[in-house]
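Hey, resending since the last one bounced:
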Amino acid sequence: MKYNYLLNLPGLLVAIIIHEFSHGYMAYLLGDNTAKESGRLTLNPFKHLDIVGFVFLLLFRFGWAKPVPINPYNFKKRKRDTILVSLAGPFSNFIVAIIIGFVISSGIITNSILFNVLIIMLWYNIMLGVFNLLPFPPLDGSKILASLLPSKYEHAFYKYERYLYLILILLIATNTIDKILSPFIDFSLNLLIKIIS
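The C-alpha cells again:
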C-alpha cells in the first residue's frame, strides 16, 4: 500500500503544481499581479498544496489544492481573460500528458518503476484536466460557464455559487462523478494515443 502511494506521489505533485502555476502565470500575462504578489508564481509544491485536499487526492483520487488568487478586475477584458486563466490550468495538464505520452511511446524508459510512475503521472494529468473542466463550482469549468453568461446571469451564478458546490459534493459522495468523468477521460486517452502514434 505504501509503495503504491509513493508511486502516486510524483504524478499528483506534478499535476497539481503545473495546474496552479499555469493559472497564476496566465493571469500575470494578462495584467493581474495578484498571484505573483502572493508568491504563487512558483513550482514550489508547498506554496500550492492544501494538506487535506492533497490527502484526499492521494486516498480517494478527488481533492483540491490552494486556489490561486486572481483579481479579474485587473484584466483588460474581464470575461475573456477569466476564461483564458480558467483554461490555462486544465490545458497545462493536457500538455504535460502529451509530453509524457511521447516519452513513454519512445521506448527510452526501461526502468519498470519509472515507467509506472510516468503512467500514473499521465493519468493524473488527464484526470485533473478533465475534472476541472466540469461546470460545477469551485472548478475551473464553472468560471468558464459564468463568464459566458450575460452579466446579470453571471452575477446570479456567483451569488448562489456556494449552494451550487453541493452539486459537486453530491456527485462525489454518490460516486456519480466517476460515471460522468469516465467517458471524457477515455476520450482524452484515446485522443492522446492518436496524437503520439
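Residues 2-196 form one domain.

Sorry for the duplicate.
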